[in-house]
Amino acid sequence: MEFFAAASGGELGTFALGLVIAGVVGGLVAGMLGVGGGIVIVPVLYHVLSLMGVDPDVRMHIAVGTSLATIIPTSFSSARSHNAKGAVDWELLRRWVVPMVVGVLIGSALAGIARGQALALFFACVALPVAIHLAFFGETKRLADHLPTGIGGWVMPAGIGGISTMMGIGGGTVGVPCMTLCGVPIHRAVGTASAFGAIIAIPGTIGSIIAGWGAAHLPPYSLGYVNLLGFILIAPASYFVAPFGAQIAHMTDVKKLRILFAFFIAITAGRMLYDALT
Predict the structure, then answer these.
(1) How far is it, in rounded angstroms, from Cα 128 to Cα 126?
(2) Residue 2 has pLDDT above 50, yes or no
(3) DSSP assignments along 165-204, one per residue
(4) Predicted local confidence at residue 167, as pLDDT
(5) DSSP string of 102-147?
C-alpha cells in the first residue's frame, strides 16, 4: 500500500517502536490488571495506523483483528502465571467456554459487516464506562453475591465473548468487572479472566481473517484484517512481559495504577469517540 511506500525510514522506525511499546504496555496490563492488553493495543494501533495514512474504512478492523491475534500468546503466558498461583477457576471456565465461543462467533459476524466508524464508536462507548469502573469502584462494588446461573449463566459469558471480539480485547476488560460485581474476589477474577483471551482470541482472529479476506485498502503483510507485521512486533513483547504483570498483581496494591490506567483509557477512548463522530 502507498503509505508504506511513501514512508521514510524514520517514519517506519517510529511505526515499529509504537507497536513494540504497545506490546510491552499491553502485556503488563494483561498480567497486572486482568483487563486484557487489547484495551491498550487497539487504540494505539488505531492511532498509529491513522498517522500512517491507512484508509479509515479498514483502520479499526485492522486494529481489532491484529489485537486479537496478539492476545493468543499473551493469554497463555498470563494464564500460566496466574495458574501457578492457584488463581484460575477452571470449573468456571468449563461452564463458560461454550457460551463464550457462541458470543465470539456472533461478535465476529457483527464486526465483519460493521463500518470502521461504527466499530470505533462501539469501542469508545464500552471503554469509557470501564474506565469509570476502574477509577471509582475497582473490586469494592457489589451487585450480587454470586455469579448468575441458568439463562444468566449463558448470557454473561456470551456477552463477554461478543463484546470483547468486537472491541479486539481479551475478555478481562469486561469479564473482571462482571465477576467482581458478582462477588468473585479480585485476584480470582483477574486470574480466571487471563484465560478468557485464548477462548476469545483464537476464533476471533480466524473470524477477522475471513471477514477481511480480499478487502480493499489493506496495508501490506495483512492476512484479512490481521496485519502480520503488527503481530510480529507486538506479540513477543506482550508475551514476555505478561508474567511480570501477573507478579505485580499478586505483590502490590494496584489502586493507584488502576486509576492511572483508567485515565489512559478515558483519553484514548475519548479521542476515538471524537474521530467516530466527526
Answers:
(1) 6
(2) no
(3) HHHT--SHHHHHHHHHHTT--HHHHHHHHTTHHHHHHHHH
(4) 93
(5) HHHHHHHHHHHHS-HHHHHHHHHHHHHHHHHHHHHTTT---S-SS-
Q: Which residues, other chains included, contact 151 with Cβ-Cβ below 8 Å and sequence gap of 6+?
A: none
- Rama region for 34: left / alpha / beta (φ>0; ψ in -120 to 50; rest): left
Q: How far apart are CA 111 and CA 163, in angstroms?
A: 10
Query: Does residue 88 contact residue 79 with C-beta atoms inside 8 Å?
Result: yes
DSSP state, 227?
Answer: E
**How far apart (Å, rounded) are the C-alpha atoms in residues 250 and 229?**
33
Please compute the mean of the pLDDT values over residues 138-164 and round it to a whole number.
86
In contact, 71 and 169? CB cutoff 8 Å = yes
pLDDT tens string 61-111: 999 999 999 888 878 877 887 788 888 899 999 999 999 999 999 999 999
Q: What is the pLDDT of residue 158?
A: 96
Which of 95-99, 142-146, 214-218 shows the lowest mean pLDDT across its residues? 142-146
Q: In Å, how far are 37, 220, 275 from 106, measured between CA atoms?
A: 22, 28, 26
A 10 A CB-CB count for 7 gives 15
Question: Which pTM value belongs to this model?
Answer: 0.82
As a whole number of angstroms, the distance between CA 11 and CA 17 comes to 10
Nearest to 110 by CA among 99, 97, 123: 123
pLDDT at residue number 241: 76
Cα distance between residue 34 and residue 189, in whole Å? 8
Other beta carbons within 10 Å of 156: 21
